Amino acid sequence: MFKSSDRHFVISFVIFSIYCFVPFFRSFSVIYFQMPMIITSYLLLLVSINNRLGKEMVIKTLLLSFVIIVLNFFLFYLQDDHTDFTIVNMIGAHYTLFVTMYPIIILSSMGLKKVDKNALYNFIIFICIITSISTIIGAYSFETPTRELATPFNPVLDNFYQSLNIGGYGFVYSMVLLIPFIFKKFMRKKSIINISILLLFLFMIVKSEYTIAIILTAITLLLSLIINLKKATSKILIILVVFLIIINLEYIIQIGIDYFSTFSGSVSSRLSFILDILKSRGNNSSFNELNLRFDLYRISVDTFVKSPFFGRMFDHRMQLSGHSESLDFIAHSGIFGISIFIGITMYIKSKLNCFPNKENSTKVMYFIAILLSTINTFLAPEFMFMMLLMPIIYNEKGISKEINKS
User: Is residue 59 part of a domain?
Assistant: First the structure.
């Protein structure tokens, strides 16, 4: 059984996990339901810190929360050209960004050091299974609901899909980041349950019809397979297979086009776009469209070059691409923001001493996360949860063995 202080932490963690991975709760009012939900989680976390570490640590946590809110304002909120700085708009923006950064506060609470991480891991997998199933059902019942949830143009329809617990952009890509850990667990123990969970998540990603998510998942599986094979000959064989895939890439993509054309015109058209680029060698409209994408990335690069120290933080006349989280962050915040980001990262890694440096699954996840943030938007509570909390919750040598030592 959990101690009283641990119990408060676990309840806080569970509430935040549900908020991240159960879209049903996002369909309710932000003001009257979602904000109280997160505030409750935060207050329980403070109670847990007070019971375990005392009032001094509570004060430090409050100060950390304040710093996060201030940094949110300068490093993220000001990325958008806000013409109306009303109290309601600012509270809403700060709430959204605070929730995104909330995993940092969870880490700083030290609560994960004394609880059964295996139980937390199983709970996360359980709610992800439920949402994956409802997302698959939604994909068969409606036309591209997950893709609709990635756009802000129809909030009424978005709320309807979320009320059916259909996962959107954040959930799908967070599952891509989860795949290395699920795959590792399967390789450790090839049970029916583990393979079923892996196949369920993979099928959900395919049915989401996010082309980039599908491609990144394929890369994740290949990398996970290579790092989890123990025999050198097996790794060489896999690398050889990858080489054969590369030299036959056009043929493989054509197979993918034929497959997805039966149920997903969106993925099929994206793959056709990639195939056109490979075949044209730079001589058709598809290649020109790709150049337009790079032109958007170049907007952020040019902004950084013009103002390298503060970026566009105090000058909204300069533009961002809106298509790359990493480049947009660098262009918006400049060296100032990059320095703060590196400082926070080093604080989490060294002071909290929580990142398992030799965890291969974590390395794959971070590689995919960096790749995703470079070619697409990234900032969301689900992503930060996976990046910051999952590596600590999952333990490659046997989840949460340290609980038996404490």
Answer: yes
